[in-house]
């Protein structure tokens, strides 16, 4: 075993497989990391770290489902980043009302939706992004997040409720009347 192999350098023939995986999935990994952290630059950093880890592992050619591996690695790195820096809840209050536009990752999302997604807990956000954004099934999302399908369904239910409340127009807030108020006639 050579020095390169001992360090986890890719073996022969894996550069082409890695390049194919990188080209096919880089934008999706950046978008997922960005939405998980609420910071595009941090999302790009996480995506780069994930792809470096994939390259060093030499698994590019052997993975049957590279996107699943990439999503799991991205989720774990984003979670570690939020835990380590403590930015999770503090960042929500500092976010601008409108997310910066992006031509390749996030340009077609409503800024209100982006802001509402960022207000979700990290697990609710991850479940919603995987199931609704990336069209991953509940069972697969559970495997990627390291929890049970029932837990993913709870995260999704809570995420939908929070998003519904955050995105509901203000004029439809008639259910917020005080109990002693009569409806307008």
How would you describe what is shown here?
This protein is mainly alpha-helical and 185 residues long. It folds into 2 domains: 1-107, no CATH class; 120-169, Orthogonal Bundle (Arc Repressor Mutant, subunit A). 65% of the residues lie in helices and 0% in strands. The chain is built from 9 helices and no strands. It has helices at residues 3-6, 14-37, 40-57, 66-85, 87-94, 111-118, 122-133, 138-145, 149-167. Helix 7 packs across helix 9.
Please sum up the structure shown.
The protein has 9 helices and no strands. The protein is an all-alpha fold.
Number of domains: 2
Mean pLDDT: 76
Rg of Cα set: 20 Å
Can you write the helix and strand succession as a string?
HHHHHHHHH
- Poorly predicted runs are 1-13, 98-104, 176-181
Please report the number of helical segments: 9
Task: Summarize the biggest pleated sheet.
Answer: none
Gross geometry: globular
- Percent in helix: 55-70%
Class by SSE composition: mainly alpha
Distance between the termini: 83 Å
Number of strands: 0
Report the sheet-strand fraction: under 5%
């Amino acid at each position: 075993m050579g020095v390169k192999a001992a360090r986890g350098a890719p073996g022969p023939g894996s550069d082409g497989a890695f390049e194919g995986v990188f080209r096919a999935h880089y934008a999706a990994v950046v978008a997922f990391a960005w939405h998980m952290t609420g910071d595009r630059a941090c999302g790009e950093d996480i995506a780069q770290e994930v792809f470096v880890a994939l390259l060093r592992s030499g698994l590019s050619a052997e993975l049957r489902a590279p996107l699943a591996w990439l999503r799991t690695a991205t989720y774990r790195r984003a979670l570690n980043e939020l835990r380590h820096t403590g930015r999770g809840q503090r960042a929500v209050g500092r976010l601008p009302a409108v997310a910066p536009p992006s031509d390749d990752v996030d340009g077609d999302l409503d800024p209100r939706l982006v802001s509402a997604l960022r207000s979700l807990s990290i697990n609710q956000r991850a479940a919603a992004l995987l199931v609704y954004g990336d069209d991953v099934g509940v069972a697969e999302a559970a495997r990627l997040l390291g929890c049970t399908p029932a837990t993913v369904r709870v995260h999704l239910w809570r995420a939908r409720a929070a998003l519904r409340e955050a995105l509901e127009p203000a004029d439809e807030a008639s259910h917020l009347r005080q109990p002693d108020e009569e409806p307008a006639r």
